[in-house]
Amino acid sequence: xxxxxxxxxxxxxxxxxxxxxxxxxxxxxxxxxxxxxxxxxxxxxxxxxxxxxxxxxxxxxxxxxxxxxxxxxxxxxxxxxxxxxxxxxxxxxxxxxxxxxxxxxxxxxxxxxxxxxxxxxxxxxxxxxxxxxxxxxxxxxxxxxxxxxxxxxxxxxxxxxxxxxxxxxxxxxxxxxxxxxxxxxxxxxxxxxxxxxxxxxxxxxxxxxxxxxxxxxxxxxxxxxxxxxxxxxxxxxxxxxxxxxxxxxxxxxxxxxxxxxxxxxxxxxxxxxxxxxxxxxxxxxxxxxxxxxxxxxxxxxxxxxxxxxxxxxxxxxxxxxxxxxxxxxxxxxxxxxxxxxxxxxxxxxxxxxxxxxxxxxxxxxxxxxxxxxxxxxxxxxxxxxxxxxxxxxxxxxxxxxxxxxxxxxxxxxxxxxxxxxxxxxxxxxxxxxxxxxxxxxxxxxxxxxxxxxxxxxxxxxxxxxxxxxxxxxxxxxxxxxxxxxxxxxxxxxxxxxxxxxxxxxxxxxxxxxxxxxxxxxxxxxxxxxxxxxxxxxxxxxxxxxxxxxxxxxxxxxxxxxxxxxxxxxxxxxxxxxxxxxxxxxxxxxxxxxxxxxxxxxxxxxxxxxxxxxxxxxxxxxxxxxxxxxxxxxxxxxxxxxxxxxxxxxxxxxxxxxxxxxxxxxxxxxxxxxxxxxxxxxxxxxxxxxxxxxxxxxxxxxxxxxxxxxxxxxxxxxxxxxxxxxxx
Length: 727
Ligand code: ATP
Ligand code: MG
Description:
Elements: H1 4-7, H2 12-19, E1 25-29, H3 35-48, E2 57-61, H4 64-78, E3 86-89, H5 90-100, E4 112-113, H6 116-129, H7 139-151, H8 156-159, H9 166-185, E5 187-188, H10 190-203, H11 205-214, E6 217-220, H12 228-238, E7 244-248, H13 264-271, E8 276-280, H14 288-298, E9 319-326, H15 327-343, E10 351-355, H16 361-370, E11 375-377, H17 387-400, H18 405-411, H19 421-434, H20 438-448, H21 453-473, H22 478-488, H23 491-497, H24 503-519, H25 537-549, E12 561-565, E13 574-579, H26 596-610, E14 613-627, E15 630-632, H27 638-641, E16 648-653, E17 662-665, E18 682-685, E19 689-697, E20 704-709, E21 713-718, H28 719-722, E22 725-726
Parallel strand pairs: 1-7, 1-8, 2-3, 2-6, 4-5, 6-7, 9-14, 9-16, 10-12, 10-13, 11-12, 13-14
Antiparallel strand pairs: 14-15, 16-17, 18-19, 18-22, 19-20, 20-21
Helix pairs in contact: 2-3, 3-4, 5-10, 6-7, 6-9, 7-10, 10-12, 14-26, 15-16, 17-18, 17-21, 17-25, 19-20, 20-21, 21-22, 22-24, 23-24
Adenosine-5'-triphosphate binds next to helix 3.
């Protein structure tokens, strides 16, 4: 393999970083400046030119997707298999070490890794066994506490002598009991993986020496998001050696809320005194407008290490800003833009929709679905696949068809009502023997008698509940049916009580389901056959929900539009990016606006989001948003005001066509339409009180109106929903 191919495609600063002799190095540079590229090329250089064997290379990245990409790029550069390299996430590599050295790590060979929901269940079981009331000792909070201690390398025994208050002391006792339980059962949570791997190296000299010797070169991407224990682990491995190469960007630190320490960048410079810092300033990813706008936004943060990126590429298009009437209009707009992108020959895989919170994905999924556009959601389950949604749908299905066995099984004991595995087994047997539905079998079991009184009553109550729900929903609107079922089934109550395990989010998702039913439009369901046209609204809705949960999600290798949260977009790049829901209260999130530290982290997240775009960046916000079953009229995000107007243009719907054609107009202009209302007219709104009409736009369902309210100031409203009264 030709050496020049490794360094040819690099600028001077990058080349210096790639070819530098072994020494601690810190590449500190902004987004898209080639940090990851430098890291990959350095690994190739070390293997190719310096003769470092592939199996002596360790590279740590932040996600599995990034690790996979890195491996692929090294293979491409060197035309060798990258199999022997250790490339992975901190968690993945820690796991590998613990598997190899389970005994020295004081773990049983067959230890099990728990994900976060498993961990929560263990905490709950533990609280019950300690006779602690969950209302006073919320499991979720305890889980956070335990993980936060572990991220700092702190065991319960280190805390026992602390003279904290009563609450503190009890927490420590719980932590200790949790450790004991996990040790007894061979369970390892995510934070434990890291801590245990650190202790393994710290406490076993032979193991440490082996790996210090083995890993001749250690590389870390996204170093700004390492936590205390990860950094301590890196230090052990590279102690007394000059073989650590880290790349990062303080402006992209977005995991402070999970224990990441931006300070590790400073500690690195202290701990490795003979280190070299390399700065990269040329951005190769984005066009000028996108880059300059992102630079301006991040400049509003204090205490930055400070760097300014420039690009040789032209200004490109300005960022397009779209003010949607509501969240549906927002999704419609985005999906129409994607359609024309694809019609013009663009790849779907070059397109990303990025949002702050997973709950925002549903609107986009639905619109992508109805236009038969393949897409893939990274992280987070798709809406209709979430357990709480499936539970609610199962109840709905039973009210429509009692003999739906899958639904029957799913909710017969959810929420728990004392119907055990034994009863269910009996029902199954009867159904199988007589070839009848579970519902009919259940009735038959009840009439046969022979069940315990308790089990019999519980089963009877379940059957009655379904019959009751069915009768009650007679004649109701679809959304009312859904609402009633969600409430009366006990699901809302179940999740409300569940203070941990995302109970709140599940309640919100159920409210979203009611919302979806309210907005459900039969006519838009293109996928149903004609002869389904006389299905009831409920059945249409249910059929649509299963279609949505089913086939449309593309495979790994299909050409799909990518949907993900801003957090999971770190390190990635796309030609066309939609940054959606850029509103106060959503992004920045409500909890962050009062805390300057958290607000700055949100701003870094905004910087990360904007800098994912290579050629086209669309930013959208909705002037009215129904999310979690609540309607709000958010203000555009403060981050939008931080983008200089010369880099951004507002997209307006064309006057003569209601949708979807769009034209780009200067930000200030707005189009006026004939309307029932007139400028200057005085109107009254049930919630906002009296006000004066300032502007009018759009027509029909899209008509909106800007009003200066005496009490609450200027607001945009959708005429068809605002129910205004002319005074
Ligand atoms: P982030 O901070 O978002 O992780 P990064 O600094 O890691 O970004 P890369 O992903 O390595 O940046 O590079 C951004 C893009 O620029 C990639 O498409 C990369 O291939 C390209 N690039 C980087 N350096 C050069 C170069 N010298 N010549 C051509 N393209 C380059
Ligand atoms: Mg990178």
